[in-house]
Amino acid sequence: MRVAVIGANGQLGADVVSVFAGLGHQVASLTHDEVELSSLDSVRNGLESSKPEFVVNTAAMHHVEKCEQDPERAFAVNAVGARNLAIVTRELGAVLVHVSTDYVFDGAKSQPYVEEDAALPLNVYGNSKLAGEGFVRTLNPRHFVLRTSAIYGKHPCRAKGGQNFVELMLRLGRERGSVRVVDDEYFSPTSTISLARQIAALSKSEDYGLYHATSEGSCSWHQFAKEIFAAARLSVRVDVAASSEFPAKVPRPHYSVLENRRLKAAGLNLFQPWEVELGEYLGVAPAVNAV
Q1: Greatest pairwise CA separation for the chain in angstroms
Q2: In a domain, 175, yes or no
Q3: 155 within 8 A of 214, measured Cβ to Cβ
Q4: pTM over 0.85
Q5: Beta-carbon neighbour count of residue 252 at 10 Å?
Q6: β-bridge mates for residue 278, sequence order
Q7: One of 125, 152, 186, 281 is an active-site residue; which one?
Q8: Range of 59's domain?
Q9: Is 211 marked active-site?
Q10: For residue 239, is it within any domain?
Q11: CATH number at residue 47
């Protein structure tokens, strides 16, 4: 199958390229140099040369603070860019996978969000991604919109200084011997390799639509940090930080746990508990329920 990956040099995109190439597919790796999402002509030119049958969009403007500062650019990339991809993939007869976010929810719910729950974003980033979802869902019927959460992977996240939360905690823990992390935000940390494998599995399906796609289970940032050090066999003290120590510049949902209900109903869910996938990322057996 001919596959095109938008944002191929990003944290998720690089793993998507690797997984599809490893399965023997013909993969076109497209970066910002080849495709400017906000330009319909650029998207069309970038895709028409490879004539893909399956397109995965991992590109986004996802630095939350920068989106808030420049909403026009955020919507140009995350909403209009998704629209452009939906138009061109429909013209090419290609399936479009569009990666979205848990930040489309406001966090007011105390139980995991399912696909049917009403979205109500709190910030520009979430609103721009929700708008992009709408364009994809209305303009290309052969689509998979995947909402995911707190991804981390081996490849650098360029928009966030190249270091994901796991690597940041490991560096700070080794340097300081202790860290302070908030415990009032709950989510489902998800490894990029697991998400890439899930996308590859969906390429064999025609059950199109909106899906939640995260590792199983949930935790707070404080719990996540503790598990990182336990799995890495590092003795680091993890203290609870007050929210006032790290005041948010932009409103964020305090609870954005997603339930992969549609994946499970379709028999397509490949995700494991987040502790297991963290252990795989670190190359060690997971230390589940570490103290």
Answers
A1: 55
A2: no
A3: no
A4: yes
A5: 17
A6: none
A7: 125
A8: 2-154+189-216+257-271
A9: no
A10: no
A11: 3.40.50.720
